[in-house]
Amino acid sequence: MNVRNYLLAGFASLGLAGAAHAHFQLAYTAYTLIEKPGDVPVKLIFWHPFENGHVMDMAPPLEFYAVHRGEKIDLMETLQPITFKGSSNEAAAFDGSVPVKRSGDYVLVVVPEPYFEESENLFIQQITKVYLNRNTIPTDWDRPLGLATEILPLTKPTNVLAGSSFTGRVLSEGQAVAGAEIEVEYIAAEPSFETNSPQAATAQPSPAGTVVVLSDENGYFSFGIPKAGHWGFAALGTGAETEHDGKELSQDAVIWIRAWDIE
């Protein structure tokens, strides 16, 4: 167990549920299924979205790009700094956009600058993927991107049904990670593009703190999706890089998926 996981376990054992809630890097779009071509707005926020909690200052990311039909589209020049106002504080975040023109998948990737979490005395770097699709034509969603660490979806991430399950595989430099600790998150208060603040929450987190699942010996995990909306999964400390500026680094793999109700 790395230091980060040890501290989270200690918070939980002391009954400090709030302290045990998860940091999550967001690459949020209001729509994941795109009907018309155009630039799709994206918000990059480092936040505790399930409980609409504390927002962390985000430095300019090291990389921000999309992969479409196997081609990389650099999105760094679209980024503009903003201030995102959470329920308890405000912090630096970014607005960006992705040009969606042709049909198919657009896999957004954020490689953030490592964030120093003072309470845990370590750096956190959450390498994040989120998926958009135009015209429901699959092109890229089931392919690994060769990231330092990533979660490869085995369930189409733009079309998960509430009441079904999501399955993924944790990879580190392309190799399966057995026994990875994966935190589960939900965007209960979706960000407003107009106000740069959360909208009304539609759910409350578990009173027992962060939901956690483990990967099996081949790196696979599954989670039953109880509600429509945006669900995130963070495999903690699965990257090969373990140190930054002389302190421990938790290099995490994050994926966001979109679940839908059957009407």
Explain what the structure shows.
- The protein is mainly beta.
- Helices cover 4% and strands 49% of the residues.
- The protein is built from one helix and 23 strands.
- It has one helix at residues 3-13; strands spanning 24-28, 33-34, 38-47, 55-56, 63-68, 71-74, 80-85, 90-100, 104-111, 115-117, 122-134, 149-153, 160-161, 165-172, 175-176, 181-186, 191-192, 197-198, 211-214, 220-224, 229-235, 243-244, 247-260.
- Strands 2, 5, 6, 9, 10, 11, 13, 16, 19, 21, 22 and 23 form a twelve-stranded mixed beta sheet that branches. Strands 1, 3, 4, 7 and 8 form a five-stranded antiparallel beta sheet that branches.
- A hairpin with a 7-residue loop joins strand 3 and strand 4.
- The protein starts with a helix and ends with a strand.
- The model is unreliable at 5-20 (pLDDT under 50).
Low-confidence stretches: 5-20
> Mean pLDDT, rounded to whole units?
92
Query: Into which percent range does the helicity of residues fall?
Result: under 10%
Provide a count of the helices.
1
What is the radius of gyration computed over CA atoms, rounded to a whole number of angstroms?
Answer: 17 Å
Quote the beta fraction: over 45%
Global morphology: globular
N-to-C SSE string, H for helix and E for strand: HEEEEEEEEEEEEEEEEEEEEEEE
What is the CA-CA span between the terminal residues? Answer: 43 Å
Largest sheet: 12 strands, mixed
By DSSP, the count of extended strands is: 23
Quaternary arrangement of the chains shown?
Answer: single chain
Structural class: mainly beta
